[in-house]
Amino acid sequence: MNDSIIATAPLAVYEYPAETTRTVLNMIARNVPARYPNLRIVVPHCGSFLPLAIPRMKAILPVMQAKGYMQPVDWESNLSRLYYDLAGGATPEVVKSLLTITTPDHLLYGSDYPYQPAGVLTENLKRLRGWLSEDKALAPYIEGIMAENAAALFDGNARVH
After folding, report:
1. For residues 113 and 7, which has the higher predicted lDDT (pLDDT)?
2. For residue 46, which of 115, 114, 93 has the smallest C-alpha distance?
3. Total number of domains constituting the chain
4. Which is higher by pLDDT, 98 or 12?
5. Which domain holds residue 133?
6. Distance in angstroms (rounded) separating the CA atoms of residues 54 and 44
7. In a domain, 53, yes or no
8. Looking at the domain assignment, is residue 126 inside a domain?
9. Confidence class of residue 10 from pLDDT cuts 50, 70 and 90?
10. Angle 93-96-102 (CA atoms, 0-180°, nearest 5)?
11. Which runs of consecutive H residues, i.e. helices, occur in the chain?
12. Is residue 161 part of a domain?
């Protein structure tokens, strides 16, 4: 394997979710999802670091506004328009963290195809279905997460809270 790929792999594990989080936070800070309600935004990889970043951003927003650095943010409207795929490391802990900023009907199965070998994808799918069905709070949402939420979103029938 190429040594430069091996050397940069740890950075990629961090940089992709960091860049995704930064991008979505910038959109929220500018109320983009709220201003463009017909825009369908699917945040990849379990929302990246958003479950950690959103509460921090909410906490510092009043200070940033008082100093004139930021405008008001319509948290409810912005967050209600974001959807999240569960590719790239969905675990029960990650999904429960994600549910602190969204609802189960905004979760979408994602496989990371074609970046993962078929065998890995199949095992990840089995594991995801298994722990979703074992979790009493999430079990009722399995079919939505696995297919129905995405179908509703892309058919234009998704719910905005």
Report:
1. 113
2. 93
3. 1
4. 98
5. 3-155
6. 16
7. yes
8. yes
9. low
10. 145
11. 3-29, 32-35, 50-66, 75-79, 92-98, 118-134, 142-143, 149-155
12. no
